[in-house]
């Protein structure tokens, strides 16, 4: 029996992590975010009500669940304030449920301004970031000049550090002609940030250990996806954090033995938002059909997501990097109308067949997918909760993906709602 489950994206994000975290929190007492920031957009659908979360963990709608933002997350107090207000307006008692590590680096308005200005200046070489300041904030973290949540509680010292951070960025802000808060405005803002964050700050590693010792169930919630990982993804078209399983420990403060089950969330086809290579991308009617049925628009920026066939080569490698125990295949129902379905089973690069993705974006962009075809099921799977209710062709498709990836699909998701799933093995069982 697993007492701790890590939920991770296996492709380029938006696999349906939020929905599954919300589902599994029925059994958990703690949900922990450990990387990324408000570049994430995690969608929860409960009955008629849709909630999109960017920074607050996807357990917040459940009574009795504590939601933790770990040290690996870059935190924008402005985005947090907006999200808290949105939830409180709906009657969610966020103050009772949220905890934040004092070691989270802050995203300040100058970070998002720099992110957007840099993207604009990059022209055709832009990464297609969410413009939320994620990259510049992580840059400051590793350069050891970041301001962290804890710094807000000694405002005299905070002002000194802020002044040196501002001086560091001033030349670039001028070069890009960026409009953002000046130093005095930032200092003023910091007073509000301190008031906002103070009640939530806690000793995260200590809290996690307390829950572990008590035998409580803990969920780790990944953001983005493995192919966007800064080391293992399609560099440089990636985000600026480690999105893989290994980051759950460093981004929250626990050891590897604190994770007993890794659930890889895998879309039954592939999507990507932003720039970068995507070997199985479709530009035909099938791509348009997936975009339509899957309603493939970014939950954070609203940008249309690029759509393509399932890439077993990329998913297999991503599962290996994460030590995935079981897959959750999502959005199977969004393939209901397709006549024939293709699966990428290999890449051709320079006349040779390869069975794992090359390193980095340039070689991947030259890879040609090798496909096998399967018949579509052309019937309705939406909302199915039993394997017997799925058409034989849909089951055959799931079985083929399991065989190609080498990992069982313990959950198949058949709709956006919490309970639209075929569960064969429950991760907490
Ligand atoms: P996340 O970032 O991984 O949490 O995923 P997003 O929320 O950005 O995108 C997933 C989208 O698909 C959301 O609109 C979900 O409500 C929706 N979704 C999740 N699972 C399913 C599913 O099995 N079927 C359908 N039709 N929609 C799903
Ligand atoms: P969730 O958690 C999909 C993508 C951006 C861009 C690249 C870098 O909802 O799955 P960044 O702003 O992080 O510097 O952008 O990463 N990206 C995502 N794509 N889902 C996400 O999060 C993403 N977060 C970042 O589109 O290509
Ligand atoms: Mg998303």
Topology of this protein?
Layout: E1 4-9, H1 17-24, E2 30-33, E3 42-46, E4 49-53, E5 66-69, H2 77-89, H3 94-97, E6 98-101, H4 109-122, H5 134-142, H6 155-175, H7 183-197, E7 201-202, H8 204-213, E8 218-221, H9 246-250, E9 261-267, E10 270-272, H10 285-293, E11 306-308, E12 310-311, H11 312-322, E13 326-330, E14 340-349, E15 352-354, H12 361-366, E16 368-375, H13 392-405, E17 409-413, E18 421-423
Parallel strand pairs: 1-8, 1-9, 2-5, 2-8, 5-6, 6-7, 9-13, 12-14, 13-17
Antiparallel strand pairs: 3-4, 10-11, 14-15, 14-16, 17-18
Helix pairs in contact: 4-5, 6-7
Bound molecules: guanosine-5'-diphosphate, 6-O-phosphoryl inosine monophosphate and magnesium ion (MG).
Residues 9, 12-14, 39-42, 127-130, 132, 134-135, 223-225, 228, 239-240, 273-274, 299 line the site of 6-O-phosphoryl inosine monophosphate.
Question: Regions with pLDDT < 50 over 5+ consecutive residues?
Answer: none
Molecules bound to protein:
guanosine-5'-diphosphate, 6-O-phosphoryl inosine monophosphate, magnesium ion
Under the CATH scheme, the architecture of the largest domain is Alpha-Beta Complex
Shape: globular
Strand order of the largest sheet: 7-6-5-2-8-1-9-13-17-18
| Alpha carbon gyration radius | 21 Å
The total strand number stands at: 18
Strand % is 15-25%
Distance between the termini: 5 Å
The CATH topology label of the largest domain is Adenylosuccinate Synthetase, Chain A, domain 3
The largest pleated sheet is described as: 10 strands, mixed
């Amino acid at each position: 029996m697993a007492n701790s489950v890590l939920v991770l994206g296996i492709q380029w994000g938006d696999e349906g992590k939020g929905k599954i975290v919300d589902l599994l929190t029925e059994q958990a007492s703690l949900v922990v975010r450990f990387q990324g920031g408000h570049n994430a957009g995690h969608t929860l659908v409960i009955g008629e009500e849709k909630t999109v979360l960017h920074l607050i963990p996807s357990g917040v709608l459940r009574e009795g669940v504590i939601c933790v933002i770990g040290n690996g997350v870059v935190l924008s107090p402005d985005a947090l304030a907006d999200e808290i207000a949105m939830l409180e307006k709906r009657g969610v008692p966020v103050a009772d449920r949220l905890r934040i590590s004092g070691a989270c680096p802050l995203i300040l308005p100058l970070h998002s301004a720099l992110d957007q200005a840099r993207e604009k200046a990059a022209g055709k070489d832009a990464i297609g970031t969410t413009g939320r300041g994620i990259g510049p904030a992580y840059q400051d973290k590793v350069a050891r000049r970041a301001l962290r949540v804890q710094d807000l509680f000694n405002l005299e010292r905070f002002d000194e550090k802020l002044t040196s951070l501002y001086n560091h960025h001033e030349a670039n802000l001028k070069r890009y002609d960026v409009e953002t808060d000046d130093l005095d405005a930032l200092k003023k803002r910091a007073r509000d940030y301190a008031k906002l964050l103070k009640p939530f700050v806690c000793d995260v590693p200590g809290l996690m250990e307390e829950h572990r010792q008590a035998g409580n169930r803990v969920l780790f919630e990944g953001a983005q996806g493995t192919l966007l990982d800064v080391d293992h993804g399609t560099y440089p078209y990636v985000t600026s954090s480690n999105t893989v399983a290994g980051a759950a420990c460093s981004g929250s403060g626990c050891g590897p033995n604190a994770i007993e089950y890794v659930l890889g969330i895998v879309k039954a086809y592939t999507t990507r938002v932003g720039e970068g290579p995507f070997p199985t991308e479709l530009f035909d009617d099938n791509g348009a059909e997936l975009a339509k049925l899957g309603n493939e628009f970014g939950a954070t920026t609203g940008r249309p997501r690029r759509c393509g066939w399932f890439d077993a080569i990329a998913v297999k490698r991503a599962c290996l990097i994460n030590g995935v125990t079981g897959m959750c295949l999502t959005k199977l129902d969004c393939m209901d109308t397709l006549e024939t379905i293709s699966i990428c089973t290999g890449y051709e690069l320079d006349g040779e067949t390869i069975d794992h993705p090359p390193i980095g974006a340039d070689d991947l962009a030259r890879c040609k997918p090798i496909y096998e075809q399967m018949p579509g099921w052309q019937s309705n799977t939406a909302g199915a909760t039993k394997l017997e209710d799925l058409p034989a062709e849909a089951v055959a498709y799931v079985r083929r993906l399991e065989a190609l990836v080498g990992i069982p699909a313990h959950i198949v998701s058949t709709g956006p709602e919490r309970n639209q799933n075929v569960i064969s093995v429950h991760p907490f069982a």
